[in-house]
Amino acid sequence: MERLPIGSGLSESSELPFAARWIQNGELADIYEKVVARQRLSREDGLRLFESQDLLTIGFLANLVRERLHGQQTYWVYNQHINYSNICVNGCRFCAFSRRHGEEGGFVLSVDQVAAKVRERLQEPITEIHVVGGCHPDLPFSYYLDLVREIKKLRPLAHIKAFTVVEVAHLAQIERLSVTEVLQEFQKAGVEALPGGGAEVFSTRVRELLCPEKLSSDGWLLVARQAHKLGIRSNATLLYGHLESPAERVDHMLALREAQDETGGFITFIPLAFQTANTSLSGVQGRTGFTDLKTIAVARLLLDNFAHIKAYWIMLGVKMAQTALYFGADDLDGTVMEERIGHMAGASSAEALTPDELQTLILAAGMEPVQRDTFFRPVRPEADAVTEPQRA
Length: 392
Fold this sequence. Notes:
The chain has 392 residues and is an alpha/beta fold. The protein folds into two domains: 12-70, no CATH class; 75-372, Aldolase class I (TIM Barrel). It contains 16 helices and ten strands. It has helices spanning 12-23, 29-36, 43-51, 55-70, 111-119, 141-154, 165-175, 179-189, 204-210, 217-229, 246-263, 289-302, 313-316, 318-324, 341-344, 355-364; strands spanning 73-77, 79-83, 128-132, 159-162, 191-194, 233-240, 266-273, 308-309, 331-334, 368-372. The strands form two sheets. Strands 2-3-4-5-6-7-8 form a seven-stranded parallel sheet. Strands 9-1-10 form a three-stranded parallel sheet, covered by helices on one side. Helix 11 links the parallel strand 6 (233-240) and strand 7 (266-273). The longest helix has 18 residues, at 246-263. The radius of gyration is 20 Å and the shape is globular.
């Protein structure tokens, strides 16, 4: 796949002389020249960006790319999150959401309970239903298919973004099916995209420390590639701010870039800021705003074949998410409605934002809000977004 054209959204004739005066004698001058020339950055460039303390220059470079791709447009989606279960076989040390089977605090929603959550919001013009859960040891495959079919029945015009590649691989294993068979059945039921969770950090060293039982990094990328070949697009994530090194962040991003070159199937990249509370890693030093902004900016600069970088306000908080719009991010996610995973780990943000609140945040940052669907197509709020729900 060809890299995205880092194109014409910014007036180079007026902006580049100023940038040159600012950066030409700095430590990142050669990287600046590459960005201006639309040249792909190397692993060494990524390492230098993370090593640099010149956050404003890094942010400037990332914002240059962001504005060339999207101008002042900042995207948001009217979506609803549903977590169907937190029972999981993996036992990842960084996760405050999961529970073992039979452990206090574990839950599984029935298909009827999931349907009830959808019905509660049928009068809202939701365009995306986001569904994730743990890797449950014995829920039958039919449960997942029935769940998707019921949501699609109630929300026929909404996109269903459901089940991470980790959940897909888990179901293939316990049902003795191929990954392709699982994906094809999901596709028939109504799944149109996969969330990006479960990637964590691709580093073998980190995964052995944090999630040795989880799908490997190679396995994650393999399932994502298979989904893309079937026409099921997906998001991609990086969980940062725990035990990983800057080099491991860079290598993670480059692995995603290579996969995107092959398939073009990733919709957006989401840096997920690690939340320390209520996890087995509660003693690690917390991330800083400096780390948040630098990670987003480096992602925008390295991932030249990803159209979108998300500032996930649930994990960052709304103020940091606003600031990230000037460090390469062009998407704030959406209304969310009910978020458990980050909040069970101590996220202090709200569990939902209204459309007015999201648009106010974007406007206050000096950007232009654009309501989108799952695939970043613009939505006209009173036309495209409103469904005619079927009441069961």
